[in-house]
Amino acid sequence: MTTLVTGSAGHLGEALMRTLRAEGVPVLGIDRLPSPWTDRVGDIADAAFVRESMAGVTQVLHTATLHKPHVQTHARQAFIDTNVTGTLNLLEAAATEGVSGVVFTSTTSAFGAALRPPPGAPAVWVDETLAPVVRNIYGATKIAAEDLCELMHRLTRLPVLVLRTSRFFPEDDDDPTALLRRTQDNLQANEFLHRRVDIEDVVEAHRVALREAPRIGFGRFIVSATTPFRREDCAALGRDAVTVLHQRLPGWEAVYAREGWTPPETLDRVYDNRAAREVLGWQPKVDIAAALARLEATGDIRSPLAQRIGKKGYHRQA
Predict the structure, then answer these.
(1) What backbone phi and psi angles, to 5 degrees, belong to 263?
(2) Where would I find the NAD-dependent epimerase/dehydratase domain in this sequence (predicted)?
(3) What distance in Å separates the CA atoms of residue 87 and residue 80, rounded to the nearest whole number?
(4) What is the DSSP-derived secondary structure letter of residue 119?
(5) At residue 197, what are phi and psi to the nearest 5 degrees?
(6) Fewest CB within a 10 Å sphere: which of 3, 110, 137, 308?
(7) CA angle (28, 162, 68) in 5-degree steps
(8) Which among 170, 284, 265 is positioned nearest to 227, based on CA atoms?
(9) Strand, helix or coil at 129?
(10) Within a 10 A sphere around the Cβ of 153, how many other Cβ atoms?
(11) CB neighbour list of residue 45: distance below 8 Å, 6 or more residues apart
(12) Is residue 249 within 8 Å of residue 292, measured between CB atoms?
């Protein structure tokens, strides 16, 4: 009963390896980079390496990817090699091996330009029915990989679940101007309102997905912290998020005042995790209220797992 974890040197890969190893679960980590969590070093774009790594594997957690920051440093072909060809190699090897389930880590960034309404327009309510509008090669290859997951399920009946995860990494915001207005801790606390998830909850989502994959067969699920907002709030959130926040989240003001933080003036999107909770059966523990309570109790908004992993950056630039 060996679980294969791809991208074991990355944020989520390490989190999964740490958690599974600590529980005594037989697990094999693979990555292009050596690390304490990598058992085999190699490239998932290499079909032979993937086939060799899949021998004896019963479940697959596929987190390896080129990320959005790599758009500035890597050729588009590199995204196709890793995110598309690598995923296809894993799916074909998993189907041949007869694994009980594959969980593919995708991203809410796959929704692309659909997440960016004009200024003052209602916030976008993001659930699994929202149609992606590709914005860059990262999103294009993640959508292509998701479609390969669905295709391989139809062709081979391989159970595959796609988890579109929101932000869980501790790195600085990809908008450098954001740090001119707020600290990184302030920004990430604000994100728990609508577009962030704790890495411990992401790990649990993957574990639940492995368990439920044979029952569900194929599905796409948004993995993000449960928002305090409702769909009917979207118009107001696009104009004045603070007023809505006063209505939906009592008690936030004292914590923000003590930290010298400010809430977001407006929001452009809100991720809805209802399907992951109701269909998949995932129950996230950390929402904005829990994150603020942890900050008050420990002085740190991050979970213990996030603190242990720390900032990793991304694979060396090309």
Answers:
(1) -80, 170
(2) 4-212
(3) 10
(4) T
(5) -145, 145
(6) 308
(7) 85
(8) 284
(9) coil
(10) 21
(11) 81, 82, 85, 86, 89
(12) no
Give the DSSP H or E segment for 221.
Answer: strand 218-223
- Report how far apart, in Å, the C-alpha atoms of 129 and of each of 58, 297, 298 are: 31, 38, 38
Determine the straight-line distance between the first and last CA of the chain, rounded to whole angstroms: 36
Instruction: Report the SS3 class of residue 269.
Output: strand
Collect all residues with Cβ–Cβ distance below 8 Å to 210 and sequence separation of at least 6. Answer: 3, 59, 61, 100, 101, 103
pLDDT tens, position by position, 36-65? 999 999 999 999 999 999 999 999 999 999
Structure token pair of residue 10: 């990355």
What is 2-172+197-226+270-285+304-309's CATH number? Answer: 3.40.50.720
Strand pairing partners for 160? 102, 218
Rounded Cα distance, 128 and 233, in Å:
19
Q: Is the CA virtual torsion 143, 144, 146, 150 positive or negative?
A: positive
For 115, the token pair is 């997440």
Dump pLDDT digits (tens) for 257-294: 999 999 999 999 999 999 999 999 999 999 999 999 99
pLDDT digits 0-9 by tens, 190-217: 999 999 999 999 999 999 999 999 999 9
Q: Distance (Å, rounded) from C-alpha 11 to C-alpha 34?
A: 14
Record the tokens describing residue 314, joined without a space: 């991304």
- Three-state SS string over 49-115 comes to HHHHHHCCEEEEEECCCCCHHHHHCCCHHHHHHHHHHHHHHHHHHHHHHCCCEEEEEEEHHHHEHHH
Strands 160-165 vs 124-126: parallel, antiparallel or unpaired: unpaired
- Of the candidates 210, 306, 167, 302, the one whose C-alpha atom is nearest the C-alpha of residue 5 is 210
Q: What is the largest distance, in Å, between two alpha-carbon atoms of the chain? A: 57
**Of 200, 222, 232, whose CA–CA distance to 272 is shortest?**
222
Q: Quote the DSSP letter at residue 74.
A: S
